[in-house]
Amino acid sequence: MRNLQDTTTLHNGVKMPWFGLGVYKVQEGEEALQSVKAAIKAGYRSIDTAALYQNEESVGQAIRESGVPREELFITTKVWNTDQRNDSVLEAFEISLKKLGLDYVDLYLVHWPVKEKYKQTWKVLEKLYKEGRIRAIGVSNFKIHQLEDLMSVAEVKPMVNQVELHPLLAQPELRNYCKKQGIQIEAWAPLGQGRMLEHPVINEIASKYNTSTAQVILRWDLQNEIVTIPKSVKESRIIENADIFDFALSAEDIEKINALNENKRFGADPDNFTF
Q: Taxonomically, which superkingdom (predicted)?
């Protein structure tokens, strides 16, 4: 991994950037437009949005205004839970595509494992994938038992599982399972929603490499073969977050960070959510 354009190859042969921009809670309009444009200008090629975020239109506008050819970008969006419950997955996809102003998306995810619904939802994603309207399909917030349940009926294995993942929730068992299954793990909230930035162990390591704590954590992701999508709306921070290709953490420092795991979630538990 030498630069922002470096990719991992998903099990269907599609190349996905290791590093991207997340836009959760980024306001539709100027904030989302400018942050996505700043990221693409800085060399980012992967942008992760969702129907829930209500900023797909601004993401699409930024893509069109970026000057970068569509085929060089990797755009992810997700189907929200209400559309799973209402059996309106296909309609939700069409709405997302229209808002983005795109002919296809690179990755479409089942946002949460809604009980009694996610297998049905997956069948719609498989259909869209087979039609070539999505280059890769995957899931978000799935635990091992949910992945196994899904794959018991799946014709196409998920290519990606995007989950909350940071040094306090390192998810080693899930990562190992996904690796064995050929499912690429991806981290949302890689910085623990900002809570990891003042951690004393991370601070100590950052001082050693003369980097920021965020850069240490994001480098830890990459060296653990975790796709990562930090969020920021500030151009300077967007650039700084991605400036992690000129150093490498030692095996000893990787282990120090690994040892911080407490299985601590800041987001909802995929086995127990009410939205």
A: Bacteria
Is 104 tagged catalytic?
no
Q: CA 168 from chain center: how many Å?
A: 18
- Is 43 within a domain? yes
Closest Cα partner for 138 from 161, 156, 171, 163?
161
The CATH number for 152's domain is 3.20.20.100
Angle between helices 118-130 and 89-100 (to 10 degrees): 50
Q: Is 111 annotated as a binding residue?
A: yes
For 22, the domain range is 7-258
In three-state secondary structure terms, 223 is: helix
In b/e form, how buried is each residue of 186-224, taking b as 16+ CB within 10 angstroms? bbbbbbbbeebbebebbeebbeebebbbbbbbbbbbbbb
Largest CA distance in the chain: 52
When divided into structural domains, the chain yields a total of 1
pLDDT in tens, the chain (275 residues): 789 999 999 999 999 999 999 999 999 999 999 999 999 999 999 999 999 999 999 999 999 999 999 999 999 999 999 999 999 999 999 999 999 999 999 999 999 999 999 999 999 999 999 999 999 999 999 999 999 999 999 999 999 999 999 999 999 999 999 999 999 999 999 999 999 999 999 999 999 999 999 999 999 999 999 999 999 999 999 999 999 999 999 999 999 999 999 999 999 999 999 99
Instruction: Answer yes or no: pTM beyond 0.70.
Output: yes
270 in a structural domain: no
Which entry of 24, 44, 53, 129 is annotated as an active-site residue? 53
Q: Which two tokens stand for residue 55?
A: 């900023």
Integer CA distances (angstroms), 260 to 48, 152, 168, in order: 27, 34, 6
